[in-house]
Design a protein that fits this description.
Helix content is 30%, strand content 30%. Strands 6, 7, 8, 9, 10, 11, 12, 13, 14, 15, 16 and 17 form a twelve-stranded mixed beta sheet that branches. The protein has helices at residues 17-22, 53-63, 105-119, 138-144, 160-165, 182-195, 200-214, 268-282, 297-303, and strands spanning 4-7, 12-13, 25-28, 31-34, 40-41, 74-78, 81-85, 91-95, 124-130, 148-149, 153-159, 174-179, 220-227, 236-245, 251-259, 287-292, 306-317. A hairpin with a 4-residue loop joins strand 1 and strand 2. By secondary structure, the chain is an alpha+beta fold.
Length: 325
């Protein structure tokens, strides 16, 4: 069993360089050592951050099957996998709790590709691998079949009560609010598109698409932090994030966190996380889950979430079909 070191100075899960370059694997000598983020060698300063196998097992059992694709347009079972068509039907997502028992991984990969190719309207799909998945060379096998790796994210899980215990007060002039009007939901999505530096055209398309998806969705909530420069100026939305209460599980998922650069470092996103943790408990959900970028990961770690593994999006794109002239 390979151990990893959790570097407090970086506030991040930092495997050796050979792991970073290959996203999820570590080779040592002539043998093969598996990178398992659920095992850490940690210093005393981060002892409280130690994750447990039980959280990872709960995540695998509850969050990697039909729960991950509950809002998809359709789902097809292919062996142990769930092959989903997303609402737009132009993108797909493949997930699974485990590939244990699959005797021929390459045959399964070919079957999945053939399934999405047969749909016709799918431009690309994501095979969502995790850093502790078997077989150990899964990512390399997928690449051999034409997949490319997207940015690796850290999967974090934590008890919502722990998040509330770490809650801190907002600076003066800021307040947290749940968004309940379509106009506000659109404004929040437009803010996110601005933070992502989308073009004007793509910004409007993104905001409208996300608003259609979230408006009227009774499992999702959008929250924001507002501030007012002076009493005569309308409140300005400066930080946003959503939460989705996953049906049939003990989990709610934190998603889509954004904050304007000039308002960062003030504890706004942490306060937004606490508000969403309170919402999860009110919905009967005990645990929070998030797939984190390098930016949100340190904040959620300080708030009480624990790194349990990594998510490696493996993307397969179909060539565009040109219309006949």
């Amino acid at each position: 069993m390979t151990t990893l070191r959790f570097y407090a100075s970086e506030g991040a899960l930092s495997p050796p360089a050979s792991v970073n370059s290959r996203a999820c694997r570590l080779h040592a000598g002539q043998g093969r050592a598996r990178y398992r983020p659920a095992r850490f060698t940690i210093s005393a300063t981060v002892l409280a951050m130690m994750t447990s196998d039980s959280l990872l097992q709960m995540y695998d059992a509850q969050m990697r099957t039909d729960a991950e694709v509950f809002d998809a347009a359709s789902v097809t079972r292919i062996g142990p996998t769930y092959a989903a068509l997303l609402t737009s039907t132009q993108r797909g997502l493949l997930t699974y709790a485990s590939l244990e028992g699959v005797s021929d991984i390459d045959a399964l990969i070919n079957e999945v590709i053939a399934h999405y190719r047969q749909v016709g309207s799918v431009r690309s799909f994501e095979w969502k691998a995790r850093g502790h998945d078997e077989p150990a060379d899964l990512c390399e096998r997928l690449e051999a079949h034409g997949f490319t790796r997207d940015d690796v994210e850290t999967v974090m899980v934590g008890d919502a009560e722990v998040i509330l215990d770490a809650e801190s007060a907002l600076p003066e002039g800021y307040r947290v609010q749940r968004l309940t009007s379509r106009e506000d939901v659109y404004a929040a999505n437009e803010l996110a598109a601005r933070v992502f530096n989308f073009s004007d055209e793509r910004r409007a398309e993104y905001a409208e698409r996300q608003t259609r998806r979230l408006w009227g969705n009774n499992t999702a909530e959008l929250w924001c932090v507002r501030t007012s420069i002076d009493p005569l100026t309308p409140d300005q939305m400066v930080c946003t994030g959503r939460i989705e209460h996953i049906p049939g599980t003990d989990f709610s998922s934190l998603m889509g966190g954004t904050c304007l650069p000039e308002h960062r470092g003030l504890g706004l996103y942490r306060a937004l996380t606490a508000a969403r943790a309170r919402s999860a408990l009110a919905a009967g959900k005990r645990y929070l889950h998030a797939d984190c970028t390098e930016y949100s990961r340190p904040i959620l770690q300080r708030a009480g979430l624990q790194a349990v593994t990594t998510a490696i999006p493996m993307i397969y794109s179909f060539p565009a079909i040109k219309a006949a002239i």
